[in-house]
Amino acid sequence: MRRLEGLLKDFSVLPDRSDSRTWVPDPKCGFSVRSYYRSLQANTQEEFPADSVWRSIPPSKVTFTMWAACLLKLPTIDSLKRRGRVLANRCEMCGVTEETCNHLFLHCKVASELWAFVAYSFNISWCIPQSVEQLLFMWPKVKLPAKGRKLWLTIPHAVIWTIWKTRNDVIFKGEIRQFDKIILFFKGLIFHWSRSLDWASRYRFEDFVFSWESLLKSM
């Protein structure tokens, strides 16, 4: 009873009006399936890291891949099995465990090494999150100099795209996974995407490859 009284203490009773029910998402028209659906959409959008997914610097195919990875919609082996495909589920990147979206991009040995390279390059300490979605929620919160922030916000896209491209080349082209080649591809993406940033326009591809640490210090 005391709890109920506490909840009601901030409300006033209007004796000249009869009781009524109000549908908060649309008080004027009341409940409808449309208003209920829109309220669900609004809640979903608040819980989705849209600002971290839809970046302006990476190409649209990369941001779409990031969106699909965040929602676990990429055609990884576990996803294909859920759709009825009969496949042996093994991560082709590490060969140790089953391939899932979060394993492939975060917890696979190859992915962990690439994230470790990023952390070392930017001199940060962090724990790999459980999911791509968690990664995108926490990534913008890392404090960096303003000069390199736009580039920093594209790093997850570069890592995800590098891993996805490498994984597909291993499966469909029979290429051998080489970490040096993975790092080179990653740096090449950063170089290509940074062309739109004023401070990076004076650097050449060779600077990104051979003077990576010096370049980052200049940010």
Task: Describe the protein in words.
The protein has 219 residues and is mainly α. The chain has one domain (50-218). Helix content is 55%, strand content 0%. It has 13 helices and no strands. Helix 4 (60-70) crosses helix 10 and helix 6 (101-107) packs across helix 7. The longest helix is centred in the last third of the chain and has 18 residues, at 155-172. The radius of gyration is 24 Å and the shape is extended. The protein starts with a helix and ends with a helix.
List keywords for this structure.
mainly alpha; 13 helices
Largest sheet: none
Low-confidence stretches: none
Determine the structural class based on helices, strands and strand pairing: mainly alpha
Task: Tell me, rounded to a whole number, the average pLDDT.
Answer: 84
Question: What is the terminal-to-terminal distance?
Answer: 61 Å
Number of domains: 1
Principal-axis shape: extended
Order of helices and strands: HHHHHHHHHHHHH
Q: Care to give the gist of this entry?
A:
Pfam families: zf-RVT. This protein has helices at 2-8, 33-46, 50-53, 60-70, 77-82, 101-107, 109-121, 132-138, 146-152, 155-172, 179-193, 205-210, 212-217.
Task: Describe the secondary-structure layout.
Elements (H helix, E strand, L loop, with lengths): L1 H7 L24 H14 L3 H4 L6 H11 L6 H6 L18 H7 L1 H13 L10 H7 L7 H7 L2 H18 L6 H15 L11 H6 L1 H6 L2
Protein name: Reverse transcriptase zinc-binding domain
Organism: Macleaya cordata
GO molecular function: RNA-directed DNA polymerase activity
